[in-house]
Amino acid sequence: MKFLNGASMPDIIRNLKKPFVFLHKDIINESSYKFAFVTQLLGIFFSVVSLYFLSKLVGKAALPHIQPYGGDYLSFLLIGLALFGYIQVALNSFSNCIRNAQTLGTLEAMLVTQTSIPTIIFSSSLYSFAITSFRIIVYLLFGALAFGLNVRSANYMGAIIILFITIICCSSIGILSASFIMVLKKGDPLSWIFKSLSWLLSGVYYPVSILPDWLQKLSYFIPVTHSLEGMRMALLNGYPMRDLFSSILPLSVSTIILLPLSMFSFKYAVRIAKINGSLTQY
Amino acid sequence: MPPIIETSNLRKIFPLPKRYKDLILHPFLKKETIALEDINILIDGGEIFGLLGPNGSGKTTLIKILSTLILPTSGKAFINGLDVTSHEEKIKKMIGYVVSDERSFFWRLTGRQNLRFFASLNNIPPSKIDSTIQELIRLIGLEKEIDNVFQNYSSGNKQKMAIIRGLLTNPRILFLDEPTRSLDPVVTHNLRSFIKEVLVEQTGKTVLIATNNMQEAEDLCSRVAIIQNGKIKKCDTIKEIKNIFVGKKRYVLMLKSSLEEIQARVDHSYLKNKVVNLGHGVSENKFIFLTVEIDMKNESISEIIEWLVTTGIKIESCIHQELPLSEIFKRCINA
Fold first, then answer.
1. A281 lies in a domain?
2. Which residue range forms the structural domain that includes residue A177?
3. If interface means Cβ-Cβ distance under 8 Å, which residues of chain B face chain A?
4. pTM for the complete prediction?
């Protein structure tokens, strides 16, 4: 039985296994740096405690703006930062993987194997997503057990759907940014602009409602604004799916536009790098 | 039988990076360098073909085009009849590219973990990965070190790893880019025997080897293409190339006489233009060594011996000296 591009069933199964081969390799590789692994865990502890004291400082002053999200600033902040952790990985991991493989010298050896470039890039980023998930789970657990982050009445399915679409949407921007890295090697402008605007306007640290009116309008065009809004509504208020639709719709539209665009640009960037002979240069 | 590797008028031009000054003053001016020019080669199945040339001559660029890592500017390249620009996936199944750069491995993984990773990327069924690796490490001789972390490997073992990786898929065609670089003479000898006897004679693989070592080319290759500045200067057997570029035979005569006397006699004879060197030996300083070069076709050493005898100079020995391969290589390049 043949599928897309003439691939047979065993081919498809083999390709589906490849991301896990990369994940396995990266786990062995990263866990060999034991001290770095331990310091990462310690970092989570310090950042959650810092956020707790920050939320105490802000206290009731933030209440009018935080009220639509359950009224607890620490919970608002933890969820915003946790989701932004994923967004950062989606934005940076693809270009980082290319850059790392170019500088380490492993890219050329992988490119001559029977694995396509998109599979190599996607699979190389899997470890970053896995370790971020682990970090965020520890982060939220710590927040819930030590500082009363309350997500008991959350709509988990809604949160997972929003997370999934957010990752695909931001990964598209990440792939666009990887296309820049493929050709320019260093200095990708796209991810920097998107990340900076998202920090400023999408409501990671503060709700969008405190921004001036014109900035609020601008924030509507940033997909991350809808991700954060939807995620907080799903986890902190337990909104049902129909109430999350207003966040899911703009996110999905952005994804439908950005995903094919990113795929096309990446394919084009690889072609340019092959013409310039710079596929493995850095 | 059609050739397994074929290139036709292959050309590759690389853009050169511009300086800031050029970017401002001549933003549309293209700066380029020609890496390959009109490359035409035909390689038969089961042949060891050498790409011989100095550093930067274009050998690696040609191998990378054939490995689908670089797109040619114009011309065609075929692997087993398939165009390298449009059949990337199929070609990758047929070739093994031995990337000699030791950085191409994951240094904190063991040799075996590295090979398992690359075997999976090459679609080797999981049930066969370990047995394939085991067979190759036995064949190449890396059994003791295979479970050590890669960063602790010697240069020779890193090179062996690159070769094992290139052979994981049992490819029909193997591209070797300076495979014996940084290897000691014993490992080099063993590796060359392995390539010739096992890979080609026993299993019938086609090997394309890029090297700047003439000795390696002579030991291994049935034919070579000598490349310089992206152009093929000569494509033939080493023997033929030697015949073309050597042209003369070199003899070293050990003579028993004074240096001044021989010098005076030689200076006034027809031998004057044939002398390459005349002087005392390094260890045998009681003898004089006369090195002469004579035309391969029209002259004979016996004439020189006869002349020396008639002039009363005593000859202790006469040795035919092969022109060093490096010298022949230099002549080819400069031709």
1. no
2. 23-276
3. 12, 14-15, 35, 61, 64, 67-71, 73, 89, 92-93, 95, 97, 99, 101, 103-106, 108-109, 113, 117-118, 120-123, 126, 165, 169
4. 0.83
